[in-house]
Design the sequence.
């Protein structure tokens, strides 16, 4: 009898518990709160809405110049004063470059203040990339120029000093528009690669040839003589990437066929202690000739290997390693995925597009990666579209992409070059900066599903920053895995690619409807860390020696 009463009581309590749980879920739904869980992303969310705020934010800057500045026009996005907000360094072409300090209130309208200095206000700048070269936890800047490239050492508080001589870096005298960096083995400094464009004479006239690209390997805390990566085929973007997950990072090179006859796209084998060499036809590399202008990479197929998007004039390329291949044999999947972007998506233009900066980010936080492409006529090329708006492709659950720029409110017809998607006001929604030729930049604040009167959050998100001891403080070359239910996103941490500019800072992931995720890091030397649980809508720092993530919140204002 006691046993039967015990069982009956347990049954009653189970029923009561189920009723209470059901009531709790109902209450959560009624009041707009999702029940706890790691729901696998399965539905693509609506596009975000953007509001343009460049002038109101205090930015007045354009990229100008004659034909030597038809290319370039990059932006470096990084934190130069340790407040964790992304600051801006903007190329100016024949005008001066400019550094802008981010003073945006958390979750508010975007606000920047110019930080003029003769050290950073340089002329003939085509682009810039941030990275911590000397491992002092201050971001440095590699500034690309028509003429000598300049490396600026970060001193903190958005102050810099020239470092070419102190670090033994030969800035050369080429027309440079591309850069990438990686760490090889135990080196105390990164290996640097510079992508050079058309070879010029002393009057900046064309010589009919392309300059060789350059590889600079460290010797202690200085650098050896540059190694020529020959032949050069008029390069506009380069990217170090562990394309085959071997732990060895090859150098992908996008070249502009407008200025070569027998050239092609390239992939250099860069191995520690070995001379660099090109991959060959016998190793699976296929000849491809395009107007290569920008590179972005992301694992779109879920096999742990990065796909490569390359911008061009006309149709763009999205390359995926041939299934089962251990060699660099690629198949183009741009048509299948809907991202050829070969003509303007709106208007009556029938001529081909000219694409520049590509970037993979999750702009609506639904867990599916999206793709932004900047566009604009070189100058006045009549055989290409004069009105050529930027693309914003939203990723879908089936792996395809849908054009959404007009719905998102970022439709414009400037001649955009460099760009970046970053969370400037630290509200978990990615904003957008675009550098334009001969007109002010565009600075788009994301208001989620809201409007100019106020933002409305979209899907959940996390921001990740990696830290490790030693010279490679930001763990460039790592792979981050984010697991959301049964769905896993993998992202490689790189410096380079895009068009003439890049980012260093928070790494953004959308989580869809999940309120938590698990993260695992494969560090640059191949060591794999543990799975670490994190809550959504939060910034997290992951230290290599730790078993837990450390939350970070913006200080009260």
Sequence:
């Amino acid at each position: 009898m006691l046993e039967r009463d015990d069982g009956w009581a347990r049954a009653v309590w189970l029923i009561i518990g189920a009723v209470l749980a059901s009531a709790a879920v109902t209450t959560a739904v009624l009041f707009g709160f999702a029940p706890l869980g790691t729901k696998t992303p399965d539905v693509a969310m609506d596009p975000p809405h953007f509001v343009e705020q460049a002038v109101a934010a205090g930015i007045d800057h354009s990229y100008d110049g004659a034909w030597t500045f038809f290319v370039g026009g990059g932006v470096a996005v990084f934190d130069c004063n340790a407040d964790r907000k992304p600051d801006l360094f903007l190329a100016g072409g024949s005008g001066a470059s400019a550094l802008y300090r981010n003073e945006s209130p958390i979750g508010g309208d975007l606000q920047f203040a110019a930080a003029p200095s003769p050290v950073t206000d340089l002329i003939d700048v085509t682009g810039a990339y941030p990275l911590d070269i000397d491992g002092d936890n201050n971001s440095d800047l590699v500034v690309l120029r028509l003429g000598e490239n300049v490396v600026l050492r970060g001193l903190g508080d958005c102050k810099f000093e020239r470092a070419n001589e102190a670090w033994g870096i030969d800035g050369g005298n080429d027309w440079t528009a591309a850069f990438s960096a990686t760490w090889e083995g135990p080196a105390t400094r990164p290996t640097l690669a510079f992508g050079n464009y058309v070879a010029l004479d002393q009057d900046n006239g064309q010589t009919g040839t392309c300059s060789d690209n350059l590889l600079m390997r460290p010797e202690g805390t200085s650098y050896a003589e540059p190694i020529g990566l020959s032949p050069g085929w008029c390069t506009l973007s380069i990217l170090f990437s562990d394309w085959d997950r071997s732990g060895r990072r090859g150098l992908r090179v996008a070249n502009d066929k407008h200025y070569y006859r027998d050239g092609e796209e390239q992939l250099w084998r860069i191995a520690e202690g070995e001379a660099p060499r090109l991959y060959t036809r016998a190793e699976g590399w296929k000849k491809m000739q395009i107007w290569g202008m920008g590179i972005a990479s992301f694992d779109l197929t879920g096999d742990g290997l990065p796909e490569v998007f390359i911008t061009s004039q006309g149709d763009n390329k999205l390359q995926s390693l041939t299934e089962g291949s251990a060699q660099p044999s690629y198949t183009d999947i741009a048509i299948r995925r809907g991202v050829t972007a070969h003509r303007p998506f709106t208007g009556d233009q029938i001529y081909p597009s000219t694409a520049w900066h590509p970037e993979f980010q999750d702009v609506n936080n639904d867990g599916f990666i999206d793709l932004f492409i900047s566009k604009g006529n070189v100058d006045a090329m009549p055989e290409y579209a004069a009105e050529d708006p930027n693309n914003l492709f939203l990723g879908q659950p089936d792996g395809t992409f849908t054009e959404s720029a007009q719905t998102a409110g970022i439709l414009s017809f400037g001649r955009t070059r460099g760009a970046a998607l970053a969370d400037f006001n630290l509200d978990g929604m990615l904003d957008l900066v675009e550098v334009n030729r001969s007109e002010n930049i565009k600075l788009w604040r994301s208001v989620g599903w809201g409007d100019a009167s106020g933002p409305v959050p979209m899907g959940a998100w996390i921001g990740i920053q990696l830290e490790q001891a030693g010279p490679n403080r930001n763990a460039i070359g790592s792979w981050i895995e984010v697991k959301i239910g049964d769905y896993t996103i993998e992202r490689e941490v790189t410096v380079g690619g895009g068009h003439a500019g890049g980012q260093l800072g928070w790494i953004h992931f959308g989580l869809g409807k999940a309120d938590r995720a698990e993260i695992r890091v494969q560090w640059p030397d191949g060591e794999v860390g543990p799975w670490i649980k994190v809550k959504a809508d939060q910034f997290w720092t992951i230290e290599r020696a730790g078993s837990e993530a450390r939350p970070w919140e913006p200080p009260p204002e």
Notes: The first helix runs from residue 2 to 30. Residues 53 and 443 are 5 Å apart (CA to CA). The mean pLDDT is 93. The helical segments are 2-30, 164-167, 334-337, 405-408.
